[in-house]
Design goal:
Length: 413
């Protein structure tokens, strides 16, 4: 009888060990009076691995309070990231444990496009962007800033398909051959396959030119912007499913007579956000210097909002063809640190000609200290999606600035 009882107790003990799987509890606390929905949080993967005593090949799952899996990603800098939703002034709990993750769709990704003069383009479920590379600079075309691509009617990736359609060699040859024998047919075929035309999921209808475009940062010498040109090298560090990250290094800039200043940017776009994070560093600077985040103005009296105290700027862009029913492009930037000045700065008549007809920039100006990082957030939305008005966009960016100044607190145990 005793032997039977020992066996029974042993079996119960083994079963209990199997059922009581070790978990890491993640508590996400919201210090603001804003609901924080689907906001990306980060946990050090090394700490998770230590607590769970993971083998190198072990897999984990992230569970919400209802025990449902949520998508996650391990980033290049060894962070486990996932989207959390936390009520105003509240807290939410998630758990991480070993298990087999479900398959979730890609919501943030990007690619280097040597076939399109070295573009780097990226997107998430809401928005898409691109920046320009050395092959474009070699042509002599001046495009200094970020480009904004409008996206609608889908949360799936669309950028790669747009490039494929735009650059299809067979189609391009057909367009070229038709130019002499049937110019109208050539034009029609170009429109049918161009990413400058909305074929149902958005288009490129934003004009950058020789300006800071949709939120590029630049050093300033007095009131003069020291424009960065195209990147020199690119390295994609994260490529989905929830985060895209690219590192860009630029050719040396001449700053106050010093031609050795090198800019490095790390740009991150997370799923569910209209805004990119940019971390900028300048090497070889000898002294503090102003740095400006700029958004190009295509109307001298356009809808601009600047709020240095609360750390954001916005602009409503009329798009590159106001007669084509392209709606409006909303552009903005938000700043986690102190902004010294935010203003509209219009070009002189001469500079307007040099800047492709643009009217100026809306600028947010701060001081950059040598050896530091300048961090800010920039992005856009389109009036043909959920954000339909300037009021909607201004509220989004103002709230975003409040969020980056009051980040979610993440604790694990």
């Amino acid at each position: 009888m005793k032997k039977f009882l020992y066996l029974l107790v042993g079996a119960f003990f083994i079963a209990s060990c199997v059922e009581s799987k070790t978990v890491v509890t993640v508590t996400v606390t919201n210090p603001t009076a804003l609901n924080r929905d689907n906001e990306m949080v980060e946990v050090a993967m090394g700490e998770v691995a230590n607590r769970l005593k993971l083998a190198d090949t072990a897999q984990v799952v992230v569970l919400n309070a209802d025990g449902q899996q949520v998508p996650y990603q391990i980033t290049y800098d060894e962070k486990l990231i996932f989207q959390a939703s936390v009520n105003a002034n509240g807290a939410a709990t998630y758990t991480i444990q070993t298990g087999t993750p479900e398959v979730f769709g890609v919501k943030a990704c990007g690619k280097y496009y040597p076939e399109r003069v070295d573009d780097v383009a990226w997107e998430n479920d809401l928005v898409a962007f691109r920046t320009y590379g050395p092959a474009l600079q070699a042509t002599g075309e001046k495009a200094y800033g970020y480009d904004v691509w409008a996206k609608r009617a889908t949360t799936d990736p669309v950028v790669e398909a747009r490039y494929a359609m735009e650059l299809n060699p067979v189609t391009l040859a057909r367009i070229d051959s038709l130019k002499t024998i049937d110019p109208e047919a050539s034009k029609a075929l170009r429109e049918e396959t161009s990413y400058h035309v909305d074929h149902g999921n958005g288009l490129d209808c934003y004009k950058v030119g020789p300006t800071l475009g949709g939120g590029t940062a630049a050093l300033m010498a007095g009131d003069t912007i020291i424009y960065p040109y195209c990147y020199k090298t690119q390295e994609i560090l994260d490529n989905g499913p929830l985060r895209f990250t690219v590192k860009l290094v630029y050719n040396p800039l001449t700053v106050k007579g010093d031609a050795s200043v090198v800019e490095t940017r790390i740009i991150t776009l997370d799923a569910g956000s209209y805004m990119n994070k940019a971390v900028i560093a300048y090497s070889n600077l000898k002294e503090a210097i102003p740095v400006a985040t700029g958004i190009v103005l295509h109307e001298p009296n356009g809808e601009v909002l600047t709020d240095a105290k609360n750390g954001y700027i916005t602009y409503v862009d009329p798009t590159d063809n106001v007669n084509n029913d392209n709606g409006k492009i909303f552009v903005g930037a938000a700043f986690p640190a102190y902004v010294k000045e935010a203003k509209s700065a219009l070009f002189s008549a001469k500079e307007k000609t040099e800047r492709g007809g643009a009217d100026g920039h809306v600028l947010a100006i701060s001081d950059y200290e040598p050896g530091s990082d300048y961090t800010y957030y920039w992005g856009s939305a389109w009036s043909k999606t959920e954000i339909k008005s300037a009021a909607d966009w201004n509220k989004y960016v103002a709230n975003y600035a409040q969020k980056v100044r009051n980040p979610l607190t993440v604790t694990i145990k």
